[in-house]
Amino acid sequence: MDANHKMSNTREPQVSDSNSNVQSFIQIKALSKEFNGFKAVDQINLDINKGELFAILGGSGCGKSTLLRMLAGLETPSSGKILLDGEDITEWPAYERPINMMFQSYALFPHMTVEKNVAYGLQKEKIPQSEIDQRVKNILDLVQLGTFSKRKPDRLSGGEKQRVALARALIKNPKLLLLDEPLAALDKKLREQTQFELIKLQEELGVTFIVVTHDQEEAMTLASRIAVMKAGKFVQIGSPTEIYEYPKNRFVADFFGAINIFDALVIDQDDTQITATFDQSELTLKAYTDKTINIGDKVGIAVRPEKISISKDLPEDSNLTTSKGIVWDLAYYGNHSIYRVKTESGQIVQVSTQNQKRSSDHLVEWNDEVYLSWEQNSSIVLLD
To answer: Which of 111, 245, 264, 319, by CA, is between 20 and 30 Å from 31?
Structure first.
């Protein structure tokens, strides 16, 4: 994963000031869903503001799709409430909610043309044909499919089908659009291109989007805020930068991108700084933290691969955390390389480096003896 790309999302989250009287556009209150005694969603609370592009991120079976289906009205909550624009819609049937959902499969009608697929929802509402024609033309132009209106789905690429499904979901002007793994069927290059098209479209329309995905890069690229979900609960909510750089616990740190975690023992503590030793080795780790930690506590100290420098020479800066090891594996990805280094303590540490210079040679090779180093403020302290 390219660290520079990951952190490119600089859009400001549209969140309300907790001290103001502004009411959140979507309010989810103590929402739960049980299936035969199993809690798929467990007491979820969440506020989302109007116009926000919000992502729910988690692995298979964590409850994210169940949550989305409850918002859409396709599942009935076991308990809790859903409010949209100040109205309690918890008991509303799906067809009465001003919400549309775009499914992973796109669910296009194979016998209909693009324009008829997009117009279907409006025709069911018996809107005048002249208005339907104009709205279909406008939305197809917006998703850059105006010249494809007469084609059927079997003559479209994956990306084109995705845009037809998006146009069909947006043409009824929903207050909220739910997207369930919307880009999963696309190849990597097209998926990356479509992510930015989706962001631009959402900003132009101002519709609130909630995206469910298991793809960390996709969540970071698309969303202004992300909720990381595990076992039916949210374990952290924040901007992509907050979650990536300041994970609250070991699960978030490990799930959200690659990371190295050292199980260490605290041997010194001074205000916001701790010093710890790793696995009874000579490696001394220093980190800043605002958490309450005492000497003798066991902690995890984590560092992202792109924060670590790798060199055949011992760094001269004594303020760096430094470890010695042997290059165990390496992989070349074109724009960056990944090194897996076995340290003297036996731990495998992953390092990511940008390939800034054009060369057929690696910075270091297999079995080279190397030094790893990183700054103190790159270390993340994890208590659980």
So the answer is: 245
